Amino acid sequence: MKRHLLWTFDRGSFQWDIMCLLILAFLFLIPRNAFKDVPEFMKVSATEPVRRTVDRNGNTIFTARLPGARFLDREDTRRIAVGMVEQSLGKPVRASRFQPIRDWTGRIVAYAVWKER
């Protein structure tokens, strides 16, 4: 047990190869979403079209799920996202920043919209 804890095995030994194989298996076989390491504002809700979050600096961030996936980040898709936020709030919103949120295929499925203070 002491040899395993202190790892006294030589490089290129059978034990070394097994440990490298276990590390590579962990890296490549564990699905990426198992770690849940995305920021809160990038989590797209399946039930609500617009989610509101506040970051640690006090900025309000709205996550607006688009009605259909898009391939390009264009001004008209950003206007759709702002329109969804305005409809949710019931008043006009001035956005200070946008960030597209993509699915695993690279298509834009939502936008994170920072509301100007």
Characterize the overall form.
elongated
What spatial order of strands do you see in the largest sheet?
Answer: 1-2-4-3
* SSE-based structural type: alpha+beta
Main beta sheet: 4 strands, antiparallel
- Count of all domains: 2
Helix count, per DSSP? 3
- Our estimate of the beta-strand percent is 25-35%
Q: Give the quaternary arrangement of the chains.
A: single chain
Rg is: 22 Å
Please mark out the parts with pLDDT under 50 across 5 or more consecutive residues, or reply none. none
Termini, distance in Å? 59 Å
Helix/strand order, N-terminal first: HHEEHEE
What do the pLDDT scores average to? 85
Report on the architecture of this protein:
Strands 1-2-4-3 form a 4-stranded antiparallel sheet, covered by helices on one side. Strand 3 (95-102) and strand 4 (108-115) form a beta hairpin. It contains 3 helices and 4 strands, in the order ααββαββ. The relative contact order is 0.14. It is α+β, with helices and mostly antiparallel strands and 117 residues long. Helix content is 31%, strand content 27%. The chain folds into 2 domains: 2-30; 40-115, no CATH class. The mean pLDDT is 85. The longest helix is centred in the N-terminal third of the chain and has 16 residues, at 14-29.
Offer a few descriptive terms.
117 residues, four-stranded antiparallel beta sheet, alpha+beta, 2 domains
Concise structural overview:
This protein is an alpha+beta fold and 117 residues long.
Topology of helices and strands:
Layout: H1 2-6, H2 14-29, E1 50-54, E2 60-70, H3 75-89, E3 95-102, E4 108-115
